[in-house]
Design a protein that fits this description.
By secondary structure, the chain is mostly helical. The protein has 19 helices and six strands.
């Protein structure tokens, strides 16, 4: 994975320079389309292309007066181009440019996130295979349940990340739409062929029906996908936090030389990256609500969505890029303690094998309720002096159905891992 923790790629997507360059591209393509339709003379098109040089400083100067970014943009180039500038922005409204450019930025951001997820998928696949047979306890409700392996846990993360990759690919298609359809979307002063030409050149699909803007349900879906990815990464990071707790100590974030965990307690080694991920994921999820609020606008469009989108999309994509990168860093350096995992398996003195005993009794012909009560009454007696297996062996009622060898057989960890190969083969790991 490219370790770009300064995130120049994602930051560049949302830079003013990138936005302005794309606005230039949309305007020139629209002029090209009109030229093909005979509306713009070829000589005028050539002059427009030749003089369409960005001057961000001048754009800002004009915007301070006009209080309108696209008007300032067009006026700046009109100063450079002269009379032929009358063909710029012909029949178009600001959102034709802004929304089409925004789609391009969302696609670019999506591509970066997709590459992140591809790398994460491969990393999780490799680690799942590596720790396939590293036995640990599975927990439900935070309580010891039955044996699993660390590789199995990672396999569940692998599949969830694979689903997120597929989700982002679908979402990229959902957002890959442009619109050049005029002030209320009716092409009143535009030839629809202009839109088709511009979108084809930009590798976007024309919005089939738009108002002044691209419908914001597309944007809300994009944000929702980002939030789902962030929530998955948070889920994985939260698990690492739990497994690093002092009482558990089965895995640990790498603690570098010279690193400090606490200003007051020199012994502390905290899962700070995982905690950071869990915190930042909340921001991305919160931004989904703002995206959903933007779906409902007045009539064919108002401007209430615009200022919101300038914040939530750069923030969400940059944060998610950062989160994935940090989680990759965690995985790459994660410290695993297989011996502690084995030791923790023994904490309940054999209680984790209770279902095996239950089912063996059912196989002997007992009703499930009676078998359950037999097993549970012994489970509740487990203490520092007696293990679960010892109590079962001493229970005369239970021994009427299971001999000591049969009881011992139920306490084999291998019984719980016999289908791991089937699961891993199914996942192609």
């Amino acid at each position: 994975m490219i370790e770009r923790y300064s995130l120049p790629g994602m930051v560049k997507v949302w830079s003013e320079e990138n936005k302005l360059k794309k606005m230039v591209e949309v305007e020139i393509l629209a002029c090209e389309a009109w030229a093909k339709l005979g509306k713009v003379p070829k000589s005028a098109l050539e002059k427009i292309k030749r003089n369409f040089v960005l001057d961000p400083k001048r754009i800002k100067e004009i915007e301070e007066k006009t209080q309108h970014d696209v008007v300032a943009f067009v006026q700046t180039f009109a100063e450079k181009i002269g009379e032929e500038a009358k063909y710029l922005h012909y029949g178009m409204t600001s959102s034709d440019v802004i929304d089409t450019v925004f789609s391009l930025q969302l696609v670019e951001a999506g591509d970066l996130l997709i590459e992140d997820l591809k790398e994460l998928v491969q990393t999780l696949k490799r680690l799942a295979r590596k720790y396939k047979k590293t036995v640990m306890i599975g927990r439900t409700h935070g309580i010891h349940a039955e044996p699993i392996t660390f590789g199995f846990k990672l396999a569940t993360w692998y599949m969830e990340t694979l689903r997120n990759l597929e989700r982002m690919n679908r979402t990229k298609e959902t957002i890959s739409y442009g619109k050049i359809s005029g002030a209320v979307g009716t092409y009143a002063h535009l030839n629809p062929k202009v839109e088709s030409y511009v979108c084809e050149k930009l590798r976007l699909k024309p919005e089939l029906v738009s108002t002044q803007i691209i419908p914001r349900d597309r944007y809300a879906e994009y944000l929702s996908s980002l939030a789902l990815v962030a929530s998955s990464i948070e889920k994985f990071a939260l698990e690492i936090r739990h497994l690093q707790r002092s009482e558990v100590a089965e895995v640990e974030e790498y603690f570098g030389k010279g690193q400090k965990g606490s200003s007051a307690m020199p012994h502390k080694r905290n899962p700070i990256l995982s905690e950071r991920i869990c915190g930042l994921a909340r921001i991305i999820r919160t931004n989904v609500l703002a995206g959903l609020e933007n779906v409902a606008l007045w009539h064919e469009r108002d401007i209430s969505h615009s200022s919101v989108e300038r914040v939530i999309f750069p923030d969400s994509t940059i944060l998610l890029d950062y989160i994935i990168q940090k989680f990759y860093q965690i995985l790459k350096n994660l410290v695993i303690y297989p011996e502690r995992m084995r030791k923790n398996l023994e904490l309940t003195k054999g209680l984790i094998f209770s279902q095996g005993i239950l089912l063996r009794l059912v196989d002997k012909g007992l009703t499930r309720d009676y078998a359950y009560n037999l097993v549970q009454r012994n489970a509740l007696k487990v203490n520092d002096k007696k293990t679960f297996q010892e109590l079962l062996t001493e229970d005369n009622d239970l021994r009427r159905y299971l001999n000591e060898k049969e009881i011992t057989e139920c306490f084999r960890i291998e019984n719980y891992l016999k289908n791991l190969d089937y699961i891993f083969k199914k996942l192609e790991i």
